Amino acid sequence: MKEFLILYTSHIIWTVGVIVTVVVLRFLTTLLHNWLVKKEVEKFPGETTEPVDLIKRILNTLWLVIGVIALGFVFVDREMDAVILDKIELVLYLGFLSVFVIVAAATTNMWFKKSIQRKIEYQYDYTSYKFLRYVAVFAIYFVGIIFALLAFPSMRVVANTALGGAGVIALIAGVASQEALANVVGGVFIIGFKPFKLGDVVKVTDTMVGTVTDITLRHTIIRNFENKMIVIPNSIINKEKLINYDLGDLKCCEHIEMGISYDSDVAMAKKIMQEECEKHSLIYDNRSEQDINDGKPMVKTAMIKINESTMTIRAWAWTRNFSDSFSLKCDVNETIKERFDAIGVDLAYPTRTIYLKNENELIEK
């Protein structure tokens, strides 16, 4: 035993030193993590501590891996020391690069969040800031991956090509037809030309109507009036003909339509629809001074179509915005129906006249 200790004293000391160093580094990492979490909670209340937690896990893993590699000095010949040192340098490079990228991304993300909050407080448009936040964070992680690839000789050609200007152009040209890049380009066009912004009420199709809540590198998110999120790829929404109810003048003209029977009083139906719309609290008087002087009504009504079984009466009711127009339409549909029932204006239903070949009897349904 004594001979064993004398023979391997240096190895034992090295092993113990490595283990103690790893334990101390992990302990210091925990102290640093707790301090950073405390400072983050004080300075940014309500924000997630996930980046700090991730840094802690990376550093603890880094110390453990380096410790395991360092123990290799005990079991290999001295000719292999240079190889082990190269491995330690590689692990340290990748570890600290990961920490740097996470810190840079988290800091950038936090800066954009604060800028967006200030924009919201002063009621400025923050759509560009929110989109650029995704671009900046993506760019940081992309550059971080490229520098990580530079650490491996076999991947340096790929990394240098991606970092070079010509390489970027070639990369873009090579995948320009791909859906992923089409979505990114579509998002850039949306931010650049601003057909809509965050908070706008838009209509893409009859089933996709709602408020724009987010614009990312890949897609646009719309919250519809059922509180459901509609995720639309940017390449699709960029090509669609959409209606933006909040672009320019916010006032909105709602068409209130009723189909009445042939024997109903058209003039009375028009009068009832006009009165019910005009007395609603959300109605907006869109008449000019000349129209008022000429005695034109606030709500125009007309019979616009004679159908197979009905006559369609339409009222043009103006409101201050799209949300008001929807509420007004729901309310006046109910009150108009009640007044129609009270005076005998029938809302028509389809009828068919059927002739039987074997009988001369007329059956009406």
Chain-averaged pLDDT: 85
List the total number of helices: 13
List low-pLDDT spans: none
The rounded Rg comes to 36 Å
The order of strands across the largest sheet is 4-3-2-1-5
Taken as a percent bin, the fraction of beta residues is 15-25%
Helix content: 55-70%
Structural domains: how many: 3
Distance between the termini: 110 Å
Q: Oligomer, anyone? A: single chain
Instruction: Characterize the largest beta sheet: strand count, sense, and whether it forms a barrel.
Output: 5 strands, antiparallel
* SSE run: HHHHHHHHHEEEEHEEHHEEHEE
Structural class: alpha+beta
Q: How would you describe the shape?
A: elongated
How many E-type strands? 10
Structure description:
The protein has 365 residues and is an alpha+beta fold. The protein has three domains: 8-179; 186-244, SH3 type barrels (Roll), CATH 2.30.30.60; 252-343, 2-Layer Sandwich (Alpha-Beta Plaits), CATH 3.30.70.100. Helix content is 57%, strand content 16%. It has helices at 2-7, 9-43, 50-70, 72-75, 81-121, 127-149, 156-163, 165-174, 179-193, 234-237, 266-278, 289-293, 322-343; strands at 201-205, 208-215, 219-224, 229-233, 243-244, 252-260, 300-306, 311-319, 353-355, 362-364. Helix 5 packs antiparallel against helix 6 and helix 11 packs across helix 13 (322-343). The radius of gyration is 36 Å and the shape is elongated.
